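Severity: low
Component: inverse-folding endpoint
Summary: output formatting inconsistent between runs
Steps to reproduce: submit the following structure tokens with default settings.
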């Protein structure tokens, strides 16, 4: 690899709003996120369907689900 063309890649701490903390490396440095794999509804199995203007009910009524 060529010398001097790669960015600095120091250790970083990513902290989530739920309290989870992850250690990794990043060119950005340490930062915080709103959701992570520990609290995201898709990964925890607590996902809910968001009903926008009754579309889910309309679909269920139309197709008998």
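Observed output (run 2 of 3):
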């Amino acid at each position: 690899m060529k010398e001097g063309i790669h960015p600095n890649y120091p250790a970083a701490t990513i902290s989530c709003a739920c309290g989870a903390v992850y250690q990794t490396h990043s060119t950005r440095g340490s930062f915080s996120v709103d959701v992570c794999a520990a609290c995201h509804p898709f990964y925890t199995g607590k996902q809910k369907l968001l009903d926008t203007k009754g579309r889910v009910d309309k679909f269920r009524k139309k197709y008998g689900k």
